[in-house]
Design a protein that fits this description.
6-stranded mixed sheet; 14 strands
Amino acid sequence: MEIHQIPILNDNYSHVLVDVASRTLAVVDPAEPEKVIPLLREFGFPLKYILCTHHHWDHAGGNEGMLAAFPEAIVVCSGDDAPKISGVGKVVSGDDLLDFGNYQIHVLEVPCHTRGHIAFLVEGNLFCGDTLFVGGCGRFFEGEAAQMDEALNGVFGSLPGETRVFCGHEYTVSNLKFAQSVEPDNLDVTAKLAWAEETVASGYSTVPSTLAEERSYNPFVRVRNQEMLARLQVSDSVAAMALLREKNNTLRG
């Protein structure tokens, strides 16, 4: 399976999934159709799915334009977010499987950023929208710290370390600067931040990472680490998650 990353809007990413053998396409969060459609046309394969991680306009706002170009495509989203998403053709729940050529797309429920946020796992590739970022996580717009802890460290925590993380935004440098403020002595944070700054300055993407990498430098993925709990002076991972998110929100304004 091929994965093609397309920068869209200001700092978003959409991802095109290609099963060349079966001549099948899917696309994740194509919020700016005019930037996504040309690549799909180059392949000339049918577009089977428009996969929506959540209802925010910078992820699901391109559905009508995509359906105008590919009316046979099926817009996939969760039931909770479906009322706020245009063109929905299939509502899914956690652990549902979607046939995609020679592969299957595994749906993961990760509510918090939105009530119906979902992620898609395909052959060791995790398309996680605004739940997990390189070095960070999404805001708790419609959920609570316990839900984000379960999403990052329960649902995603059960996945292999080599799982690749394809998130929805290029936030890596700012995320890692915050991570460094939390753990200034974490050498993994220091090294990843230096790499990310050089990568972005050169005009390249910092996405994907891997779950193993996130577990070494992402403070929100490290909240079940006793050292992190001691550093934050809290007793459990939910309290740590809430405190980290509050600190990060304050810095970002």
